[in-house]
Specification:
CATH architecture: 3-Layer(aba) Sandwich
Radius of gyration: 17 Å
CATH superfamily: P-loop containing nucleotide triphosphate hydrolases
Oligomer: single chain
Shape: globular
Largest sheet: 7 strands, mixed
CATH class: Alpha Beta
Order of helices and strands: EHEHHHEEHHEHEHEHHHH
Bound molecules: adenosine-5'-triphosphate, magnesium ion
Helix content: 40-55%
Structural class: alpha/beta
Number of domains: 1
Number of helices: 12
Length: about 260
């Protein structure tokens, strides 16, 4: 058992399709490759992180829904799935999770369910990476109530850049109201394609923007079809095609994150 000093990182952006899930899966894989103990928590009812790790949720197997709902006796420890990759564990999600929103609507302290559920197991991991849906739903609020760091993937596309301010304001609000420790610890440029002028322009804007420049990772995630392909076959790209750009970019991100501590 490790000392209770693991890093708890939410990967969040209210904008959809910016690379949140792929970052959770592949950063998780790359950190496990660096001998870290990693828990991925899938808090998106779409369950893309679960599928992207090749995990099929069997009937009666507990998921993130069970650990935040009132109705089941399952603990977070019951819900942990060991992936085929050493050091990489998952608490899977399922579509049931979308029901928790309505079910808990009148519950006091509903935003702290995940934090309470993971209190007993968090000390066993070096990293807990939390995948969130593209909305400020109860799931996302539960993640932000528990996490200390937020890693924000930003697609190198104009609309994604414009949406960043809103996300930062959301985090400020969560810090004021729910979780005084939370802060954005990194902005990650994704879907970068140096051949397109728009990609280069947005990366330059991120590098020069007062609010983001110090948070921006030097590592940039390039558009690489192998990343999408590996998610499709349920394997982190670092284990699927070690020599791909995608694997290289996520390995560099893991090293940079370790160095930033
Ligand atoms: N660097 C990349 N190169 C190529 N394809 C990518 C890359 N990153 C992500 N993708 C693909 O783009 C799609 C969106 O990525 P992803 O699912 O990670 O985004 P998301 O932010 O989690 O989306 P959502 O908001 O719906 O949860 C997926 O099909 C994924 O496989
Ligand atoms: Mg996703």
């Amino acid at each position: 058992m490790h000392a209770n000093q693991g890093r708890i990182i939410a990967v969040a952006n209210e904008k959809g399709g910016v690379g949140k899930t792929v970052t959770v899966i592949n950063l998780g894989g790359a950190l496990a490759m660096e001998q870290k103990k990693v828990l991925i928590v899938d808090m998106d009812p779409q369950a893309n992180a679960t599928k992207g790790l090749g995990v099929e949720v069997e009937e009666n197997k507990p998921t993130t829904y069970d650990i935040i709902s009132n109705d089941t006796p399952h603990t977070a420890a019951d819900a942990i799935v060991h992936t085929p990759w050493e050091g990489l564990d998952l608490i899977p999600s399922s579509v049931d999770l979308s029901g928790a929103e309505i079910e808990l609507v009148d519950e006091q302290g509903r935003e702290n369910r995940l934090k309470e559920a993971l209190a007993d197991i968090k000390g066993a991991y070096d990293f807990i990476l939390l995948d969130t849906p593209p909305s400020l739903s109860l799931m996302t609020v539960n993640v932000l109530a528990f996490a200390i760091e937020v890693l924000v993937p930003c697609q190198t596309h104009p609309y994604a850049f414009e949406a960043l301010d809103e996300l930062f304001d959301t985090i400020d609000m969560v810090r004021a109201e729910i979780n005084p420790d939370i802060h954005v610890s990194g902005v990650l440029a994704t879907f970068y394609d140096k051949r397109t002028r728009i990609s280069r322009m947005i990366l330059d804007k991120l590098k020069s923007d007062e609010r983001y420049k110090d948070l921006l990772f030097d590592t940039v995630i390039r558009t690489n079809t192998t990343i999408a392909e590996s998610a499709g076959v349920g394997r982190p790209v670092v284990f699927y095609r070690k020599s791909s750009y995608g694997a290289g970019d996520y390995k560099n991100l893991a090293r940079e994150l370790l160095a930033r501590s």
